[in-house]
Every structure is written in C-alpha cells, then in structure tokens.
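Exercise 7. Given the components listed, write out the predicted structure of the assembled complex. Treat all entries as one system.
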Amino acid sequence: MKFGFDNGPHLRDSDNTSKIMKRLFVALLPIILFSIYKNGILPYMEGYTNFFGAIKPFFMILFGVGTSFVTELIYFRFILKKKENLKEEIKHSYGMFPGLFLALTLPLNTPLWLVVVGAFVASFLGKLIFGGLGYNIFNPALVGNLFVIASYGALIASKGGYLNPMELDTIAGATPLTNLSNINYVGTSTKIIGPFGNLLDFLFGLIPGSLGETSKLLIILGFIFLVVTKVIKWIIPTTYVFVVFIMTWLIGSINDMGIWYPTFHILSGGLLFGAVFMATDPVTSPTTKDGQLLFGLGLGLLTVLFRFLTPYPEGVLTSILTMNMLVFIIDRIGAKAKFIKRYRYIPILVMSLIIIGFSIYIGNNMPGESVVDDRFKIINVEEADNLTVYKVSQKGFKGLIEAKITIEDDQITSVDITSQQESYWSEIEDKNYIENLIDNQDNIEDVDAISGATISSNALKAMISNVLKDYEVRK
Amino acid sequence: MKKIIKWLMDENPLFVLCLGLCPALAVTTNFENGYLMGLCVMMVLLLSNITVSLLSRFISDHMRVPAYIMIIATFVTILELLLQTYVEPLSKVLGIYIPLIVVNCIILGRALSYASKHKLKDSILDALKIGLGYTLALGLLGFIRELIGSNTITIMDRISGLTGYVMKYEVFPTNDFIPNALFTSPAGAFLTMGLVLGIINMLRKGDVK
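Answer.
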C-alpha cells in the first residue's frame, strides 16, 4: 500500500475559500462605502473639494486591489510558470485582500502612486516572497502600510495626513490620538474629546483617521457578522480590546479621569479595525485557543505601551507586527496547554501581572500639564538693566534643542537656536515657525504645531513658554 | 564575458558564500562607499594571500590562526593609517569597519583554506577573484541603495581630495521621483540584500541544473 504525503490542513468542512472571501467582503462593504461617503462625497457635497476629491477614496481602494491582483498574476504566471486557472489560483490565495486592507489603513491624503507601491510591497514582500498564502509570517497589508508610512510619512503629512478636506477646514490639529499625545495623555474630556465632537461621533466615525478605521459601529457589526458566520475567531479581538480597556481605565482612574477615558482609547485610532480584521488573519495568528488568548493579551499590552511610552501615537500596527513574530512560540505554549495545566495558567497569570503593573506604573508617571516640565533646563542667565539673555535647552524629538533667548522690556525679541538634531527641522524653518512664536508670545498656547514636525514644534513652544514663566518668577 | 561573470560569481563571497555580511550591510549606503570598501578588502586580501602563501611552510600547523591574524592585522593597520592620512573623509565614513577587516571571515578563510595550500600565482589569482567579486557585490548593493534611497549616484566624492574630481550625478529629475529614505537605512540594507540574493539564487538554479 502506498501512502500519500501532503501538507496540512487535512480536515476540511464545506466552507470553501470563495465562501469565506464573500463573507469577508460582505463585512467590509459597509466600511468601504462609509469611507467613500465620509472622505469623498460628504466634503464634495459641502463644497470643500472638486470631483476628483470626491472619488479619491474609491480610487485608492481600486488601485490597491488592482495592484495586488496584478502582482499575484505576474507571480503565478512568470515566476511559478503556471498557465491555467490563474483566476482560481489568485482566488484561493486571497489575492486581492492585501491591497484592499492596505488602502483601508492608509491616510486619505496618500498619493495614488504610493498606494500602488504599497500594495505591490504588501503582496510581493509581505506575502509572495515567503511562498504565498499560508507561509507568510507577517500580515501582508501591515507590511505594506509600514513601508509606506516609514519611508513617505513626512510626504503624506505635508499633504494633509489623515484629514479630509472638510476636516482640514474645521479641525485644527491632527487625529485624536496625536492630539492626546501632544497634551501629554492627561487632561479633561473637553481637551481630549472636545475638538472632535463627542463620543457618539467617535462611534459613528465622523472623526479624522485612515480610510477604513473610523466607523467603529460598522466594524463592530462586521465583527458580529464574521463571528456568527465563523470566518474569524472571537477570542483575539475581544481579549485585545478588553486589555486596552482595562489598562487605560486603570491609568485614567489613577489620574482622576472617568470611564470616558478608556472608551476614548478604544474608539480612536485603528484599534477596532486592527483587532477585527488584522489580528485575526488566520495565517499570522495562533491556531490554539490558549494561544489566541495570549496573543490578545500581548497585543493589548504592546498597544498601550506604544501609545503611552513612545512618541508614536498609534501603536496598533506595530504591536500586531511584533506579535506576528511570536506566533510560533505562542502556539507551542498553546499546544502544551491543552494537556498540561501549568502551561495554561502560568503564562496568563504572568501576563496579567505585567499588564496591571505597567498600568499602575504608567498611571503614576503621567507628566500631565500642570507638572513642572523636566525636559526644560536653564543653562545660564545674564541680566542687564532691561535686557535678559537666557541660555536654555529643551528635549525635542531626537535630542536637546539649545537656544539663546533674548528678552527686552518684558518681550522676547530673538530666539537663536544654537544646536539641534531634529529630523524634520526643515519644516520648522520653511514655515518661519520661530518668528511666528515670537509674534504670538502672549498667547503661545494657541499657536498650532506644524504637522510633520509636531514634536519639534511643541518642544519649541514649550521652551518659549517655560522661559516666559521663569522670567515672571525672576521679576 | 560569460566566463568572467562565471569566474566572479561562482564563488562570490557575498552572494554565494554569504561571508563578510557585516560591512556589506553597514557601509553600502552609497555606491562610492560600497566599492571602496570592497577595494580595501581586496587590497588586504591580496597582500595577506601573498604573504601567507610564501610563509606557510615556515609556520607550524597549530600556530596557524594566530600567525595569520597577525599578518592580516599588520596589513589592515597599514591600510587604516594610509586612509587616515590621505583620504580622511573616507576613513571617517568607513570608520570601525576598516579595523574590523582583521576578523573578516573572507580573508582569514582564504588564508586558511586556500593560500596556505597553494603556490604564489594561484593565491594571487584567488585573491583577485574573491576580492573583485566582493567589490562587485558591494558596489551593486551600494548602487541600488543609493539610486532608490537618495536618487543619486556617487562615483567620486569622498576621495576627490586624492583624485581631484568630483563625480556625483542626480539620476532622475527630482520632480518625478521621490527617493525612498528607507533604503539608506539598515532595514533597506536587509531588504536589498535579500532581494538581490533571491534573484541571484533564482538565476543560479538554472545554471546548476
């Protein structure tokens, strides 16, 4: 008797690939339609943009899907040298989805050629180069997204970033999470939620964000649909969101903020979209139940750490990619946990302790607004009769910004930057930001940060207001 | 032509043997750095191969490694001092990777496995083959990374003090092509290296069959 050898899976049920694909598409369709409405048609009807602006989101999605499709076509035809049933092959390897998900995670103002480049990178470098569907270790769409944001982030930001034409006009600043990180994570709800409406706007998706991530309601509906039709497992998204909720709730209550604070964290950014559509990708997520639980715990922990402890406000993308790397270890633990009890409880116990420990640590170390700025240092002060010269330093994006600030008759007359290592300094110089700050020194908090050099411009702002505060005390 | 390519590629240290990866990933941010690093390695390799093949019969077997390291280190130190004196900008960019040639496995490997067992002429030919292959590989990596990463090709810039010419060209018109800074960062080095390795392996597969 001869035995055949073949790779898994060996057990199949009646749900075939095209059925799963159709269900995924059904869950995504409302999100796609809403994003076209919110980013294209709504600004067009209100008269903020021309016809091209109205169809831009549709074209972004179309270009993403098309590029992914063509890439797979070329791969199957010319590299694997297959000739028949190319369409079936692409269908079975979910060929269109990297491009679709990529387009949905990109900011609206991404140029179309960049969508094409990103979709190619997502399909080719993220998936096909590993050997196609089932062999990729990273989520393809997120690889493409990381490529685009890491290399062309400043370009996108200079074109308006996440804001659609209407929001560019009405909302000063950036996405809710960037705003949160700018005000040091702690504040009243009017400062954190206020600029974008109320929490219902967050739920319905009328806030700035990437194409697909804003409408939380539709994402939740899609999640329920996908779980009921058994396309995705419910454990990962639920654990993920639950951990973020618990951690931000602890951080919030340590700093006297109500239940709105964790709700804000869940409803802003790409958290729900990432949890439902990205983290549950069957290829790059654990297959065992205990593994999925651990995966969700790790994702939640990493996302909160990225949001609070790094200058990058989002964190969902990075944490999913990081956890993708650990999937095979997690699955080993998960497989053992089926039979040995300590493998089930010890990792979860350890993770819970880490999660609670980090929440308390972050909660107690929030800088907030009222606390004295420890990034600011006075090097020396020279005082003449009506002239005061400060030599100060302020921590910026990369290193210390040092400056000589002259105050004449209670007014700052000049700010000479003596040394800096900022990455996006040219943005500051291009827009004469320092002159702008000097002109508006009496109400410096109202000066907007430069998008693309937010941290550097906020550091400059803080430096000048710190000098003024010190001058008041000295007088 | 085909023979030359085969001669260079058959035992290419970087793309086939996968040796000397550290400088290949670290210094190939532009074309000039790439091929000059390759030339430095080639000089040391040539001199050390000559010396080793001449001296090998006087060196007892269990003292081989320390003795060869001494020989290589001598040449590397000479090279380092020469670079510091005559082309200071270059030695600043290549930095630690020049002293690290001492422990570059290409050179010690060739000394142990080839030069100590072969005659002078064969050793010189071997050094040229490996050295040119390495220079070519580093140049290729530097070329790709610089082209995509900063839209320029630098042929002579840091060594212009020595040669008297500056040759640095912009390739595409700046309005049409926005360089991708990722490729000049370490992550881009891994990406380029992996892609080039993959393509070369794909081409070689046909050869072997």
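Discussion: The radius of gyration of chain B is 18 Å. Chain B touches chain A at residues 178, 180-183, 187, 191, 198 (CB under 8 Å).
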